[in-house]
Fold this protein.
Amino acid sequence: MNNNGKVLIIGAGGVGRVVVHKCAQNPGVFTEICLASRTLSKCQDIQRELSRPIQVARVDADNVSELAALIKDFKPQLVINVALPYQDLTIMDACLETGVDYLDTANYEPRDEARFCYKWQWDYQERFKKAGLMALLGCGFDPGVTNIYCAYAQKHHFDEIHTIDIIDCNAGDHGLPFATNFNPEINIREVTAKGRYYENGQWKETEPLTVHKTFDFPGSIGPKEIYLMYHEELESLAKNIKGVKRIRFWMTFSESYLTHLRVLENVGMTRIDPVQYQGQEIIPLQFLKAVLPEPASLGPKTRGKTCIGCLIEGIKDGRRKRYYVYNICDHQEAYRETNSQAISYTTGVPAMIGGMLMLEEEWHQPGVFNVEEFDPDPFMKKLSQHGLPWTETFMDTDND
Ligand SMILES: NC(=O)c1ccc[n+]([C@@H]2O[C@H](COP(=O)([O-])OP(=O)(O)OC[C@H]3O[C@@H](n4cnc5c(N)ncnc54)[C@H](OP(=O)(O)O)[C@@H]3O)[C@@H](O)[C@H]2O)c1
């Protein structure tokens, strides 16, 4: 493994654009950047937006030998994978073959089964350890910063954490009747899956989007309906936050989004199994993706803010305590800085920070890790420095 500070970023989508912009802003750490994706012109579009030169390449990240050839040619110290979750294992294989560290923001999913599960990637533990390489998983916002918020709460504010509620609000408006803020195929697979949460050592399932309540968000956002969903960070947090009794994940949706989604589901457009159409097989959800707006095109249209945070309860010094830590991100400010809206921004900035900590060896250990396994302090410090400041509030709940 070399220590040259070179980074290969794979995936020239909404998140990829932010990662490239943010790495380019930090030339002292990211000495050279190569952006590679399936469509070369998308890499070239991003390349033209930057004041600093970067390399671009076309690569099919489903193909290990193509990836390995690109890595051998560019010789990066780190590969940041912001393509799709389907490519996680091939990119990890290529990193192992070429001796390079790995980072991603979403866990592996097979194409034909909407199932979020870390097992496939945790199974690489021994191979990465033996090779002296590090793989950092889920280093976006959620998963990513939400895990770090929990680790930070555990380190500084609680003797025992009892419950964690991760609450993700997008109060932005793009003015379109229906569009998703990140890859539509991945987004719809996620929200149409059954809800699932962890309680007293067991996983409990709920029908999709049936459990909901109102949550009063800080800033100018105010009360919104939040819906219980399964989200991948629940799996690693249930393992890594010692003694936690319950973890749930909630997300806001507008009435319009839910109505469109219900219709699309009812007519079969969200199916991920192949159907015959005019003599060829198509997957309805992939066809739907082709007709929906590209998430990247929503950037200039989106107004408003996101608010993602963790509401944590437990015990400190014998007293019951409630702690809420969150970030508010403005869509238009994110767009002005990186040509991307806040959903891509809040994912891309933590990916850059994770990469920075790995290159600076502040976070470096051979093996496969989730972010909450490292010291949260340097990450929390860098969040404030690089565009995602956080706010925390405390409540003593002994008298509730
Ligand atoms: N942790 C978090 O907080 C969080 C939040 C949002 C998103 N994410 C994750 O971030 C990742 C990127 O999301 P996004 O919104 O940027 O998606 P996106 O806009 O669809 O971008 C994905 C990019 O990957 C490229 N790609 C897909 N398959 C490829 C392949 N086989 N080889 C090479 N490139 C390939 C696509 O190329 P083409 O354009 O040519 O198809 C596209 O440019 C996803 O894994 C998503 O799940 C994480």
About this structure: The chain has a mean pLDDT of 94. DSSP finds 14 helices and 18 strands in the chain. The pocket of NAP is lined by residues 11-16, 37-39, 42, 59-62, 82-85, 87, 105-106, 140-144, 182-183, 186, 295-296, 344, 347 (CB under 6 Å).
